[in-house]
Amino acid sequence: MIRQFALLLSSIPLLIPVTSFTASQSQPQQPAAQPQLPLSKDPQKQREFDETRANILMARKQYSEAIPIYLRLLQQEKDARRRATLYNRIGIAYQQQGMFNPAKRNYDRAVKADRTNASATNNLGTVHYQNKKYKKAIQFYKKALTIDPNLAPVYSNLGYAYFADKQYELAMDTLRHALKLDPDVFDHGSSTGSLLQDRSVTNRGFFYFLLAKSFATSGNAERCAHYLRKARDEGYARYLTAAKDPAFASVLQDPLVREILQLTDNPPAPPPPPGI
């Protein structure tokens, strides 16, 4: 989504004030110019310009500047689904600033306006997750998946919530399903678009170890090694137990895995014969 905004931005002229400089004159640094879009006599085109401007501000993480534009657009919008989209974006803008209560209010308004809005339903789950209400978060993630069962980021969120709730087997099964839908789901950055992802977990070392185990069971040695290394680096002391865990059997011959688990190709030397 940010990449799409960047492409939009590259094609839109910004009205930046021009300041003249001389060799003997130093000027104070000017604040970054706000994205300005041309005014239009066509109300529909003007709304499109304003929405694009707000989206650019979101991509730039200027959330407080985007909110009043979305609110103004809401006053002009009568279509229920479009109103839900705007409420959802306002909720994201608040949540990205750590303002969870107004974020939740706007997600609730989005869902009330359009009960088929899976993004707002998911985002309600992320608010509960960040407030450590994991069972409530799980309910909303599941509800979002009943609306659209093909959203890999929501399965990822659900997996994290199961892990936080100490339902480890369900967590790994859910994360494996997320991987089936999108093999790169764990590489995507946190979204500033319509669908938020939340990856804050406690006991990260253990979490990475379980991810490594999940990749091992699917035969992905490279990803398994990657997360074993992260588990080790996070201080998870039991990462070496993977060498004797049947779940890792299919990847134990991989050089990267063997290196991390400190496995050698040479058998240990036999003990010396007893002295005579």
Structural class of the helix and strand makeup?
mainly alpha
The biggest beta sheet, please?
Answer: none
Number of strands: 0
Q: In the CATH classification, which architecture of the domain at 1-11 and 37-115 applies?
A: Alpha Horseshoe
The averaged pLDDT comes out at 83
Summarize this, please?
The chain is 57% helix and 0% strand.
Q: Overview of this structure, please?
A:
- The protein has 276 residues and is mainly alpha-helical.
- The protein has a domain at 1-11 and 37-115: Tetratricopeptide repeat domain (Serine Threonine Protein Phosphatase 5, Tetratricopeptide repeat).
- The protein is 57% helix and 0% strand.
- It has twelve helices and no strands.
- Helix 3 (63-76) runs antiparallel to helix 4, helix 4 (80-95) runs antiparallel to helix 5 (100-113) and helix 8 runs antiparallel to helix 9.
- It is elongated.
- The chain starts with a helix and ends in a 16-residue tail after the last helix.
- Residues 1-31 have low confidence and may be disordered.
